[in-house]
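Good day; I would like, with your permission, to put a structural problem before you. What I wish to show you is a protein chain and, alongside it, a tokenised description of its three-dimensional fold. Thank you for your consideration; the sequence and its tokens are set out here:
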Amino acid sequence: MKKDLDRLMEERGLDAAVVGGNVYGNPTMNYLLNGAAVGGGIIVKKRGQTPTFIHHSIEREEAVASGLELVDMSRYNYLSILREKHDRLAANVELYRRIFADLGVKGDVGFYGMADQGSAFVFLGALDQALPDVRVRGEYQEGLFDVARATKDADEVAMIRQAARLTCEVISETIAFLQRQRVEGETLVTADGAPLTIGAVKREIMRLLAERRLEDPQGVIFAIGRDGAIPHSKGRPDAPIRLGQPIVYDLYPRHASGYFFDCTRTFCLGYAPPEVEKIYQDVSGCVDAVIAASQVGVPARTLQQVACQFFEERGHPTVASNPQTEEGYVHSISHGLGLAVHEEPSFADIPSNTTTLQPGHVYTVEPGLYYPDRGYGVRIEDVIWIDEQGTLHNLTDLPRQLVFEMNGRGSR
């Protein structure tokens, strides 16, 4: 949480942290700006002090919403620096020298945010050489802001709840849209008699998302039959929608606040084949078993172990016994969720993962079983939040249901 930043900086020996770049696609900038509608800038956080936001002059009024200390970038007259230096790298080094001198930044300084890897390498090396009072620091994984963002405060959870409600609405309305379609034989058809396709359904999903100001930056998964047995197949646009074929619908949109939600449901229209019913029950049971094993203090990697054991006891291959398996259970059980759709905490079942479940964690539980040679896959995904008292809350207000009737045609 943000309240932990000073403690985390002290543990890492950081005197200051600098976050730069555009806001869009930059979770750390978004995190510190508290939803201010700006394009970008530079944030300097000195240990024990409120962060300072160096903003562009044209965004001075929007910057106020950040609640941070504000400095107008025009103070440093960047255009005159460019004219003087005749070189953008030298000009940017001089800009940061002026900012650091103005704010009294010295010592070990960590750098964060989004930038091209090569240009960041060159710039930070030049800055380290040019400023004798500053030691440029970087972190490769589980950095300062990764750890802080892994636990969410009440305001963040409230925004994730909003994203959850709207996401579940879209899923429900997508299914209702499918149920309204006409059926010829085993195929859903449009008003002109052409088969209803995955591409047409996705266009309806985009409309439903837009009505709720939800963005789809990474692409919705809506995959039928064998495509649903390839976990990250987004579905072939020309594939027709047919009765009795399992559809994996994985929706992970971004709310206007910048926070994501993530939910998966697998369902069949009209009826489900017995073999699909069987693995659906196994996947649903695994969701319940993993949630039941989730308690404050439990090693995060334990949840993957629970899932693998659950499936292996029911005869399914898993990555625990064969890390290269392409059928059965083939992925991780969970990931953190927040300003990125995948963030800390990690649930990887590896010895170096010492993370334990803590109050404030928001994470998915998403077991799946995949059998591409048999032509079907099933995944179910809920999102769990652990509150300050250690109580678990399922943020996914959407029932699990395998079969939805079509125009009066029920299960057979």
